[in-house]
Design brief:
The structure holds 2 protein chains of 2 kinds.
Chain A: H1 8-13, H2 15-20, H3 25-37, H4 39-51, H5 61-70, H6 76-85, H7 95-103, H8 105-125, H9 133-141, H10 150-163, H11 165-183, H12 189-235, H13 241-270, H14 274-291, H15 295-308
Helix pairs in contact in A: 3-4, 6-8, 7-8, 12-13, 12-14, 13-14, 14-15
Chain B: H1 3-11, H2 15-37, H3 40-57, H4 67-84, H5 110-129, H6 132-143, H7 148-155, H8 159-180, H9 183-186
Helix pairs in contact in B: 1-2, 2-3, 2-4, 3-4, 5-8, 6-8, 7-8
The chains are: A mainly alpha, B mainly alpha.
């Protein structure tokens, strides 16, 4: 401080200006310097300001504490909490805290302690480690197997599956199976077999129907042929017995072929080989058609059902 | 090179990155280990254990999480295990000054060094007198410089709880330091 402080007489002469707050900034600083060193003027001014209702008495700190104890409680706890929550230095903008610290030497001391404790804690984190530690750590970790994370595990699994597509398909089926069981009851193996057996029974009865149709077709063809044979025989077109013999031989061959094909169709269908069954049923029908061309027109319609089935 | 970049390289089994990581972070990890082990010898062993665990588990580190928080979480778990196994020797709670690595610093003048030693001794005693929870939060927040967000995630607590615990621990530390020291030691 290079400025010259005011004298005691100056304070007494300028009491009014001091109370009114009309003294200049420079004079206020000089007055402050003077009051710091002159207890008499400070007491006099304090008494005068108290009488004028502008300031509490100097000994009113005790009464302030009593009032605070009866109302909000001790402010020092909150002050300490605010002090330690500040990461750097206490900002001057925090007027409430700086105002409290100005009047509370205990909290001021705590603030000072926290300042060096914070600095020391930071410094303690910067510690020189034993010289041999790096070599020891690197030596030990070089002998340690790393544990793969689950992402690494999945990646390596994916890479191995790319090289083994069949395993990937099986794995995919395994992963999909629980979802199929959960969301699609028809995919449950038991249910699936049941469905297949229903299909088998349907196809078997179809094969039987085909057999009946084939037999009916054959019977019709035989009737037609017999009728034609009789009329030709009556008209003398055929030299009787040889033609009849030939006719019956044809009937026997066709009948045997149809019977065999129908039996094969039924067996194939009962074992679930539906395509094969349909092929045999078709062969039976073709045998009938080859015996009696008249059956072809109706055979086309019936044969269409094979393809559809 | 940031810690995240170094760890990413380590994850790809880059041995040079691992060496860099050990050299750069052994100090911090040693300090954490020292907090739990309380003596230089055990702290060295615990540091090695921590690095080995990090090396093994590095494949499990997710790059979107804070690398330092992940490392400190591993160090903390091993430190707690170390304490639970009863490896902390009761006689080692007060470390002789000459054995402690951060005491003798020839760059400081004797008066400063003496003051600093005195303060650190008080601070260590004050830290020892705190509860485990308070000491841990001081270690994580004020010594390791972790953010409240990282601490909250690591300890599995809300960020508000982490903040209030931190402030409470700091207040307790200030009170403990004041109780342990004479006024002239604090100036």
């Amino acid at each position: 401080m290079n400025r010259q402080s005011v004298s005691c007489s100056w304070v007494r002469e300028h009491l009014l200006e001091i109370f009114d707050g009309t003294i200049s900034g420079e004079d206020r600083h000089r007055l402050s310097d003077h009051l710091d060193g002159c207890a008499a003027c400070a007491d006099m001014l304090s008494e005068a300001m108290f009488d004028a209702g502008q300031a509490p008495r100097k000994d009113s700190e005790e009464s302030l504490r009593r009032i605070l104890a009866a109302t909000s409680g001790e402010p020092c706890t909150d002050a300490l909490e605010r002090i330690v929550s500040i990461e750097t230095t206490i900002p001057e903008s925090d007027e409430l805290l700086t105002g409290h610290l100005e009047h509370c030497p205990i909290c001021r001391r705590k603030a000072d302690v926290w300042a060096w404790v914070r600095a020391e804690l930071h410094a303690m984190a910067e510690l020189d480690v034993p010289a041999s530690l790096t070599a020891a750590v690197l030596g030990r970790t070089s002998r340690v197997e790393r544990e793969a994370g689950w992402r690494d595990w999945i990646r390596s699994l994916g890479e191995s599956l790319v090289r083994r597509p069949r395993a990937a398909l099986e794995l995919g089926y395994l992963f999909a199976l629980p979802f199929m069981l959960l969301f699609h009851p028809a995919a449950v193996p038991g249910h699936f077999m049941e469905t297949r057996m229903t299909h088998v029974s349907e196809f078997t009865s179809l094969a039987q129907d085909e057999a009946v149709l084939a037999a009916a077709g054959l019977g019709r063809a035989v009737d037609e042929k017999t009728r034609s044979l009789r009329s030709r025989l009556a008209q003398g077109w055929v030299d009787s017995i040889q033609t009849v013999d030939q006719f019956y031989c044809e009937i026997r061959d066709v009948s045997g072929a149809v019977k065999t094909e129908v039996k094969l169709a039924a067996t194939a269908c009962s074992t679930g080989q539906f395509d094969r069954g349909i092929r045999h049923a078709g062969a039976a029908w073709n045998a009938i058609k080859s015996f009696d061309p008249e059956a072809e027109s109706s055979g086309t319609t019936e044969g269409g059902t094979h393809g559809t089935e | 090179m940031t810690l995240t970049e170094i760890l990413r390289q380590c994850k790809r089994n880059d041995k040079l990155a691992w060496e860099r990581f050990v050299r750069d972070y052994q100090g911090r990890i040693y300090r954490i280990a020292f907090t739990y082990a309380r003596n230089p010898e055990d702290a060295g062993d615990l540091t090695q254990e921590i690095f080995i665990r990090i090396y093994r588990k590095i494949g499990q580190w997710r790059e979107d999480e804070s690398a330092m928080a992940w490392i400190i979480a591993i160090a903390r778990n091993l430190g707690i295990d170390h304490v639970r196994r009863g490896k902390v020797r009761a006689t080692d709670r007060t470390v002789p000054m000459e054995e402690h690595p951060d005491i003798a610093d020839p760059r400081q003048n004797p008066a400063e060094a003496c003051m600093r030693d005195s303060r650190r001794r008080i601070l260590r005693k004050a830290l020892d007198s705190l509860s485990d929870i308070s000491r841990e939060i001081i270690l994580l927040k004020d010594m390791q410089g972790l953010s409240l967000d990282d601490i909250a995630r690591m300890l599995g607590i809300p960020i508000g709880t982490a903040k209030s615990r931190s402030n409470r621990a700091r207040s307790e530390l200030v009170h403990a330091v004041l109780a342990l020291s004479s006024p002239e030691q604090l100036l």
